[in-house]
Design goal:
Elements (H helix, E strand, L loop, with lengths): L4 E7 L15 H13 L6 E3 L4 E4 L1 H9 L4 E7 L5 H14 L5 H14 L5 H8 L5 H6 L6 H8 L5 H8 L4 H9 L4 H11 L11 E7 L5 E9 L1 H21 L4 H18 L13
Parallel strand pairs: 2-4
Antiparallel strand pairs: 1-4, 2-3, 5-6
Helix pairs in contact: 1-2, 8-9, 8-10
């Protein structure tokens, strides 16, 4: 069915939405779509004149309304047009104009940023007519674990999910929750539960922390009640000890180990209560 539309400026509030999608997307995605269309309105929003029902462009209309836009130019189609005709328009439009997925968008934004040293995320947003926060959300994928990136590439999670996963102190657990159907809000609630509410992991004490460096070297911090913060503080002291040993030239790796073992024994001997027999009850 070939239809001819008349470009007409209409009030968006007067349109009747007929979305055929069970999930039109998040508010951020709809706003981004609307901004993109405003910048380059190649594909018209098609509206049935008799009742102002939207045949193609429901998501764009929702996005425009979310942005606070009150009116836009649409293709107003006159004549006898059934609901089936409108559905056919939406189907053909979706089939021939499949939008880029979130993973592909993230890869494009990363390439643009790498190709333009010094460009800010806000600058990319302006160039692409995106929501100012969208480049940051897209690029957060590449701060996630490889398992999260693979799930995004396979289309199993979207932008809102991986942005929440990136902020989680346990990305693998958050990914598993997302794959099992947890919403973005549920992931955020779990993140807050696991942290102190300021994006920092809640303090958890243990007896040792193992750090495996990319060079293959393993560093172990051992102490009763050690935390990440304490290990970070200790790192500066470790650097000082190693630097002094290298500059003095009195030790190699083997003799340095001997020195450290001797110091450990001295600290154990001097610790409060060390070497004292336990109290025994009076006879």
């Amino acid at each position: 069915m070939k239809l001819k539309g008349i470009p007409t400026l209409v009030l968006l509030a007067a349109l009747t939405l007929r979305s055929t999608r069970t999930d039109p997307g998040s508010e951020e995605e709809l706003k981004a779509l609307a901004r993109s269309w405003q910048a380059n309105p190649i594909h018209p929003i098609i509206v049935r004149a008799s009742d102002m029902a939207v045949g193609d462009g429901n998501r764009r209309v929702i996005g425009l309304l979310l942005l606070g836009v009150t009116e836009a130019e649409v293709e107003l189609v006159e004549g006898e047009i059934s609901d089936l005709d409108l559905d056919r328009m939406a189907m053909l439009s979706a089939y021939h104009r499949s939008p880029l997925g979130g993973y592909d968008q993230a890869c494009i934004v990363r390439s643009m940023k790498e190709g333009s040293p010094g460009v800010s995320n806000s600058g990319l947003a302006e160039e692409l007519s995106l929501d100012p926060s969208m480049p940051t959300r897209l690029l957060s994928l590449f701060d996630c674990l490889p398992e999260v990136q693979e799930a995004a590439k396979a289309g199993k999670i979207g932008v809102t999910h991986w942005y929440a996963i990136r902020r989680s102190p346990d990305q693998l657990a958050a990914l598993a929750a997302a794959l099992n159907g947890s919403s973005r809000d549920a992931l955020e609630q779990d993140r807050k539960r696991r942290t102190n509410g300021h994006g920092k992991a809640a303090t958890v004490k243990t007896t040792s922390i193992i750090v495996v460096l990319k060079s293959g070297i393993t560093v172990t911090f051992k102490a009763e009640g050690i935390t990440l913060a304490k290990a970070l503080d200790a790192q500066a002291e470790v650097k000082q000890e190693l630097k002094a040993a290298v500059e003095d030239g009195d030790h190699d790796a083997r003799t340095f180990n001997v020195l450290m073992k001797k110091r450990a024994k001295e600290l154990t001997r001097d610790a409060p209560g060390a070497g004292q027999a336990p109290d025994t009850p009076a006879a």
